[in-house]
Amino acid sequence: MAADKFSAEEGALRAGADHVATAKTTLDGQLADLRGRLTSLEGQWRGSGATAFTTVMTRWDNDTRRLTGALETFEANLKGTDTAYTETDDSAQQAMNAFNSSLTGN
Which of 20, 21, 37, 76 has fewest C-beta within 10 Å? Predict the structure, then answer.
């Protein structure tokens, strides 16, 4: 049954990791730009409004760090899976080559 099989096109996991890294870099730039624009508004707030603005910006910073951290983790996991898959595939190839050699007497 085809649904029971697992396969990966060579380089697909690494390419996925590269796409995630590119997306993260783009997002980092956009978030930094937006953060700069929001920070410029900080001086317009006074009193409890200023306190609320600071609280919101602290939340923003924490949430964006968590988001970009998740992308970093996802990229690292894709790379790790690619490495493990390649090592397993190489080991299977070596085992089959050794078995084939034992059958042919080479």
Answer: 37
Q: How far apart are CA 79 and CA 56, in angstroms?
A: 35
Contact of 36 with 55, CB cutoff 8 Å:
no
pLDDT per position as a tens digit, 30-83: 999 999 999 999 889 999 999 999 999 999 999 999 999 999 999 999 999 998
Q: Which two tokens stand for residue 76?
A: 């690292």
Q: What string of DSSP letters covers 57-99?
A: HHHHHHHHHHHHHHHHHHHHHHHHHHHHHHHHHHHHHHHHHHH
CA distance 11 to 6: 15
| pTM summary value | 0.74
In angstroms, the CA 90 to CA 98 distance is: 12
Q: Specify the length of the chain in residues.
A: 106
Tokens of 65: 């760090």
